[in-house]
Amino acid sequence: MNKTELEILAAIRINEAGVLLTADCYQGAYYLAGYAVECVLKACIAKQVKEFDFPDKKLANDSFTHKLSDLVTTAGLKQKLTEQEKQNKEFKLNWAVVVEWSEESRYKCVITKQEAHDLFIAITDNESGVLPWLKKYL
Length: 138
Description:
Elements (H helix, E strand, L loop, with lengths): L2 H20 L3 H22 L9 H7 L4 H7 L3 H10 L1 H10 L14 H12 L5 H6 L3
Helix pairs in contact: 1-2, 1-7, 2-4, 2-7, 5-6, 6-7
């Protein structure tokens, strides 16, 4: 996948998460919302790769994870994340919700309405959501 495809996939997944949330399908909404963040982070990483450059092995290996906190570091956004958390307390709370997401959530049989709603809002909120913040670095 390339950067553009990852961005498109993120938009599709967050839209699907919203549809599922509205349909009271909380497990799917939760999983897909977090997956959208993963896709945007991987798009940020892909931005670092220049066409025709031989890939950096560490960057490539570090990119093959689902752990959002590790992907922030690999994307080179750790310092910017820290700065944003200091500037915006609501963003800091939202990141705390988002970073708890795991690809393992796809195996959870019980995700509450509140959990799914909280994650979706933490990701999409226009003022302090993680997704609008990340999009600045695409």
